[in-house]
Prior knowledge:
Blueprint: H1 8-11, H2 14-42, H3 46-59, E1 69-75, H4 76-82, H5 88-99, E2 105-108, H6 119-131, E3 135-139, E4 162-164, E5 182-187, E6 190-191, H7 193-201, E7 215-217, E8 220-224, E9 235-237, H8 238-243, E10 255-261, E11 267-270, E12 273-276, E13 279-280, E14 291-292, H9 293-306, E15 311-312, H10 315-335, H11 338-360, E16 365-366, H12 370-439, H13 446-476, E17 485-487, H14 489-506, E18 510-515, E19 521-523, H15 525-542, E20 548-556, E21 559-566, H16 587-591, H17 600-610, E22 614-620, E23 624-632
Adenosine-5'-diphosphate binds next to α15 and α17.
Amino acid sequence: xxxxxxxxxxxxxxxxxxxxxxxxxxxxxxxxxxxxxxxxxxxxxxxxxxxxxxxxxxxxxxxxxxxxxxxxxxxxxxxxxxxxxxxxxxxxxxxxxxxxxxxxxxxxxxxxxxxxxxxxxxxxxxxxxxxxxxxxxxxxxxxxxxxxxxxxxxxxxxxxxxxxxxxxxxxxxxxxxxxxxxxxxxxxxxxxxxxxxxxxxxxxxxxxxxxxxxxxxxxxxxxxxxxxxxxxxxxxxxxxxxxxxxxxxxxxxxxxxxxxxxxxxxxxxxxxxxxxxxxxxxxxxxxxxxxxxxxxxxxxxxxxxxxxxxxxxxxxxxxxxxxxxxxxxxxxxxxxxxxxxxxxxxxxxxxxxxxxxxxxxxxxxxxxxxxxxxxxxxxxxxxxxxxxxxxxxxxxxxxxxxxxxxxxxxxxxxxxxxxxxxxxxxxxxxxxxxxxxxxxxxxxxxxxxxxxxxxxxxxxxxxxxxxxxxxxxxxxxxxxxxxxxxxxxxxxxxxxxxxxxxxxxxxxxxxxxxxxxxxxxxxxxxxxxxxxxxxxxxxxxxxxxxxxxxxxxxxxxxxxxxxxxxxxxxxxxxxxxxxxxxxxxxxxxxxxxxxxxxxxxxxxxxxxxxxxxxxxxxxxxxxxxxxxxxxxxx
Length: 634
Ligand code: ADP
């Protein structure tokens, strides 16, 4: 009857099945990582991201300035000099004085609601402002689209040329930490003063598509400010304009901002937010009085003039980064050793930090760092328990397998020992009977003589084999005990050689001895005889007829060195490392008729090492082998 054909499943090699499983696992991990990345990118991390942005701003060398901006500040020295706050008359005189330097523009960043001075003085100020067409008053009022913006100050200041020029801070949007990072350049099509004046210097700005880093937010066009540290721009105090000293180059053809730095905190409502009137928090410092709003405006003008606003990477680019990092983390968690994995993840954390920094400086590109970092942490903590479960299960399986193997091994050893032990007695009896026949003077036929000789030799072989197995069993159950006595190694060797002389004579092998006189050393004579017997027997067994074996002893340093050198077949170099392992027989020995268990050298090594000595072999294939035993003298 023919056997039915195997099913397709059964004919698949285990290799291809394993391969498929591996691919499926990889795909599954990839999908998981990308799904996680997709969720991670949705998490709002503006606060953390802005914090990381601020660090980048602080760490980079300050960007260049346009050299188009200067500031005139009403500060504490002004109050000391004038003994009061500057009045309308003082401001009017300031405009007149500044105008002599022919600046590109004089921009007032002052709240004139409580301006001191008589009606006449205010009128003088308003007229002075109108006389110079380059005088501007910034207002926080955005006005309604289509309508012109008017001064909200009472007469006669209602004629002042006002222009929208807002500052903004992340109060209820983005990072919500009150720091100014963005600037509005247009609202519902109406340009802010910054864009208006900057376009005069840099006409590229006329084309909105050429404005770097432009983005829309709540109906306005915005940019990130390219911040400079506080104190970057040339600054004059109010009295300095009148009394000097002044380098005219620092005012001529420049945008001169007039502001106030009196270190007083005054909240005003700008848009929907309540903000300090004269100060802002910046990426450099979150102090309430970190930077004057006048200097903030200077930074805003400069960003536009140089058209070098930082650019944020797009959502999709961030998603790709987060996806790549997630896939890497999942790969690391599942496939690498934990310590190496941790190193790689720490490396990618630092690596991504460096990418974030070096794209910002010098290229002004703001790569989102918070999401990739979060991806590393989340993927790691999400998948690590998974890996732990898998590994736990694997090690439990290995433990079970190991336990089973140990039990089987014990059973095997016990079984072999028991069997060998039970075999030893009947064989000894058979050998005894063969001896009785051999010693009996009654003549027997040559055939009978041959049969008894064969019984004797086979019995000897069997007994040797069983002894090896019994010794092996003892070693495995760690039951070998040393019974040491002071013995002369030369005498032990003589005894062993005498036992093997018959076999050597049969093969016409000459055993040469070169013994140095030795002091007795402490050894277990039985075990040592087994060691020497095995080495000498091997030398005879594996050597060809009519060769020589040299057995030598000498004292070398603190050891007795015994060498058994033969002219036998030698051992291939590739096999040498395995020679002393249990049950190992060389290829040549296995394919020859020479009998052996492969246990002799294993036992010899074990016994010699038990004596604190060592055994090794040098052999040239085709020329012979030399086995050396070194035993400690003490
Ligand atoms: P075996 O019972 O096979 O002799 P051993 O453990 O005594 O086992 O030796 C292991 C193997 O080492 C042998 O099978 C043989 O191939 C090789 N060997 C040992 N002694 C010699 C020698 N003197 N010359 C060549 N090969 C040897």
